[in-house]
Amino acid sequence: MFRVCAAVAIFLVGLKAESTEADPEKVIDGFSDGDRAKMAESSEKHEFQAEVNRLMDIIINSLYTDKQVFLRELISNAADALEKARFHSVQDETFLGDTKDFEVKIEHDADAKTISIIDTGIGMSKADLINNLGTVAKSGTTNFLEAMAEGGDANLIGQFGVGFYSAFLVADKVSVTSKCNDDPVQHVWESSADASFTVVDDPRGNTLGRGTRVTLHLKEDAHDYLSEDKLKESAKKYSQFIQFPIYVKVKKEVDVEAEEDDDDDDKEDEDEEQKDHVETKDEEEKDEEDKKPKKKTVFEWEQVNTQKAIWLRAKEDVTEEEYNEFYKSISKDYLDPLAYTHFNAEGEIEFKSILFLPKKAPFDMMDNYWTKKSEVKLFVRRVLVAEKFDELLPRYLNFVRGVVDSDDLPLNVSREQLQQNKIMKVISKKLVRKVLELMKKLAKDEESGGDDEEEESEEKEEKEEKKEKKDEEGLWTKFWKEFNKNLKMGCYEDDSNRSKLSKLLRFYTTKSEGKEVSLDKYLDRMQESQESIYYMSGDSIETMKKAPSLQIFLKKDLEVLMLPDHLDEPCLQKLADYEGKKFVSIQKADVKLDETEEEKKRFTKIKDMYKPLTDWWKKKLTDLTESGAMKEAGVKVEKVEVSKRLTESPVVVVTSQFGYSAQQEKVMKSQAFQNKEQLSMMAGRKTLEINANHPVIIDLLAKVKASESDEAASKTAEVLFQTALIESGFEIADPSSLVSHVYKLMSKELGVNPDAPLKEIEVPEDEEEPEEEDKDDEDEDAKEEKEDL
After folding, report:
1. In this structure, are residues 226 and 84 in contact, taking their beta carbons and an 8 Å threshold?
2. Is residue 73 a known part of a binding site?
3. Strand residue runs (E) in 538-650
4. Do 80 and 139 touch, CB atoms closer than 8 A?
5. Nearest by Cα to 373 from 346, 400, 351, 352
6. Is 159 part of any known ligand binding site?
């Protein structure tokens, strides 16, 4: 091949150069084509050798992270055997013979320290036992699928041929008894994972009829599996949705009538005769005991996989009750789900899924937000691969419950994780889209329902009121109350779905009358000339309604979003705009409002009028914050200017456009690992805005014009700035300066000289002591009289 390639290359080069000269042979890694040809002729071929002991050790101790998966693997093998038997029975009606039931049974023997998994599947011949169990990584299931002429409809689990050896995670010896229709003899395979195994004819004959029994002789550290509850829990966890019934042998005590227990009574009578030292009971007590029911121990087969895999059925065939029961079984929730979506995904990866939205948020939902994994269970051919996956859903959707099942996921050999991260991204993308579509449908149904109610006639209003009393909140309103923080976090984190999430957000506004509304409704109510969506943040709605920053917007009848939640403002800042309208904080500088030409001219004149006051005030505040009483507060004043937003208050403090708002400052300061330097940088410079129409400001302007060194004016300016900080929601690091000013103002109000020195008050002398002595004498006389009487 190399020579041919070289010849073709030489020929092409010769044509291009129009030359008959041949190029020298190519040398790669020091070998020419001739050298490689000689090497190929004289090379010897050898097979890779595997040290069986080492290979078994890797499979048993390094492949699986959780030893309880042994039960998952053995039940999956049993399910495959049953599926093969079912497939053959469809082709040949006589295949099943006397063993017609397809089932898996699990039993344990506490005395012998063994667990047995029995199935009525296809079974194995002696050759199958040697080939399938004696060859590591030999998959009988894969061979079966390859041998199927038409492919069929068999739904099989096995892929790698190593699942059986997971039995050695908990067992130091494994015995496999098997009988198939092709071999008249029942055989026993045994191994201790020591690089050897034995196969022998079963001296007991045919005890199984058809099928396989795998018996594990447990290690000492695996004796906890000798428990009915442990076996049921493990079997139900991983194999709950296997299509064949799985039974666990359980011990129960039942009531038995006295007549049925005569033999036991006779034995008890003999024991009583032999023991002379035991006292006989009264006849009445004996009669009462005879009437009481007696207990008898019996063994029964209890099915553990009663819940069916409803995601495999068509949506039309599944009832509401079945969806509710299925949700409760996988989520352990006592409430029905709020909503669900059932779908089949096709394309690059095919899978079936049901996703549920809970009615109530878990109490610890946000406690471990950054480490909590998705609660959607991943199945492969109805076998649980993982209860929680990191990348199946983004963090903000970790409250969603459900299942994802696929037949062709690229699992690693341990079947505990996917090998290709790309596939996980595809699945995650489809799941997120379906969840958001479900939420969008809930929100749309609620809003359209509200519109329909407005269009209904007056005759139906009474009926509507009755319905509203029964169910005052819609499904979306209920969901939003429980999970709004998650959607806001999603809006902050999920760049690809931010626009979809923004349509689901709900906020209080100055016109919403205590109800949360969508951004679309806000846009519908916007004024024609309004170019921005206005918002403000604060501790509560009531506090924000009294904020000075809001005054001009109330006067102009402009609707403002009110954000009491700490996540609201970062969410809107990430959004930046909605439907082309930018979000603008009314608590920051440079808020632009519609103005007429006359208003603009008037404002320019007012600025010029107050320029002496604003310049003087800026110098005073610079001295106060840089070298005065507020030096340690970290407040930096950028400017003092005439305000367009104030109608009632004398002053207000706003922050720069890209700095933290007052609410954000509080949140950042409350962080345990806050960076003070970064906080002071991001806090932004403050702007003091003054109300030119307020009497206090007018008076202050007059005093400053009269004398810039007026001490009363300086103190008033300082107090106004500090009170404006507090009213605007900012914190004062050292309030002592403000407090001293307040005390002085209170003193003046009461007509007291605020600078008067403190004197100790004179306490009048105690003149009432003799009276107390007289009272004591009177009390003593009264006691003596009582004693005489």
Report:
1. no
2. yes
3. 560-563, 577-578, 581-585, 637-642
4. no
5. 400
6. yes
Q: Is 332 annotated as a binding residue?
A: no
Per-residue exposure over 139-175, b if at least 16 CB sit within 10 Å of its own CB, e if not: bbbeebbeeeeeeeebebbbbbbbbbbbbbbbbebbb
pTM of the entire predicted model:
0.72
Identity (one letter) of the amino acid at 332? K
What Å distances lie between residue 409 and 251, 380, 467, 593, CA to CA? 39, 7, 48, 57
292 annotated to bind ligand: no
The reply to whether 212 sits in an annotated binding site is yes
Annotated binding-site residue? 124: yes
Q: What are phi and psi of 293, to 5 degrees?
A: -70, 145
Q: Is 162 annotated as a binding residue?
A: yes
pLDDT tens for 693-704 read: 999 999 999 999
Tokens of 128: 């199958």
Q: In sequence order, what are the residues at sequence separation of 6 or more whose Cβ sits closer than 8 angstroms to the Cβ of residue 682? A: 659, 660, 668
- Neighbouring residues of 670: CB distance < 8 A, sequence distance ≥ 6: none
Tell whether residue 415 is among the known ligand binding residues. yes
Compute and round to an integer the Cα radius of gyration of the chain.
Answer: 43
Instruction: Please check whether residue 646 is in contact with residue 665, taking contact to mean a CB–CB distance below 8 angstroms.
Output: no
The whole-angstrom separation of Cα 654 and Cα 588 is 5
Q: Could you tell me if residue 471 is left (phi over 0), alpha (psi between -120 and 50 degrees) or otherwise beta? A: beta
Dist. CA 426–CA 412, nearest whole Å: 18
Give whole-number Cα distances, 733 to 497, 656, 678, 721, in Å: 41, 20, 17, 14
255 annotated ligand binder = no
Q: How far apart are CA 297 and CA 289, in angstroms?
A: 19
pLDDT value for 520: 93
Distance (Å, rounded) from C-alpha 712 to C-alpha 700?
9
Average pLDDT over residues 225-236: 89
Binding residue per annotation — 689?
Answer: no
161 annotated to bind ligand: yes
164 a known binding residue? yes
Per residue in 98-120, pLDDT (tens digit) is 888 899 999 999 888 999 999 99
The answer to whether the annotation marks 751 as part of a ligand binding site is no
The β-bridge relationship of strands 104-109 and 246-256 is parallel
- Position 107 scores a pLDDT of 92
